[in-house]
Amino acid sequence: MTLTQKKNRLGVLLLLEILMGAAFWIGTFNISSRGHEQARQKACFAAQQVLANAIEDAQMGHPGTFAIQPGPFSQEAESDLLRKSFLKVPVLSRLPSQECSIHICTLESGLSRSLYCAHHGALDVNLSPEDCPAWIPLNQRPWKVFHPGDASCLLLAMVLFLPLGFLYFQQQRRLPGLLLLRGFLFIPGFLGDRALPFFIGVLFSGLTALAVGFLLWEAVGIMVSGKASNDSTL
Ligand SMILES: [Zn+2]
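^ Those are the sequences you sent over. The predicted structure of the assembly is below.
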């Protein structure tokens, strides 16, 4: 193999190595953040319940003094509930996620009303686009690199894993230990939940950094030997 071929191969290996490391890191981060997202959803439902109870108290205790319309649950409505002591502490400013936004929907063709979050939905309400227009169904949300519970990046890392191993074997005539070790890490990374994928991700990132460092070291070695052979031909 000529020096240029060797350099090109190493360049491809380096690129694949970085891509695979990034893909795996994103994948494990997504899976480990799913648990956090579930906790935020739970907190959001709890906040909705507090508001729903306050509205119910206001409407039951003093009929006609508190009216609530379908649409966004406004800051004014909350202030009104606080002023009349149906609500003890503010809720809207303490929602668990920045994407939370509380709305009121009509149910059973306007007979009753319920609360829902545009991001998290509602605990026991069947969210339909007609009744709850602010709710964005999960399959209609814009694609994000970081998406809790999404394993697509892990699949991408696995697709990159095979050509990387093949290229390395072609060049070095042996399988890289680091690559094999990370191959084993795929399995618990897929099966695990919450904390486990995160720690495996950290371990994987460390191994990737080592592999990138090793490839860079080889690249420098090839450059130096190329320089030496150029010098000797002069
Ligand atoms: Zn929410």
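The CA atoms of residues 9 and 171 lie 8 Å apart. Residues 36-139 form one domain.

Shout if you want it in another format.
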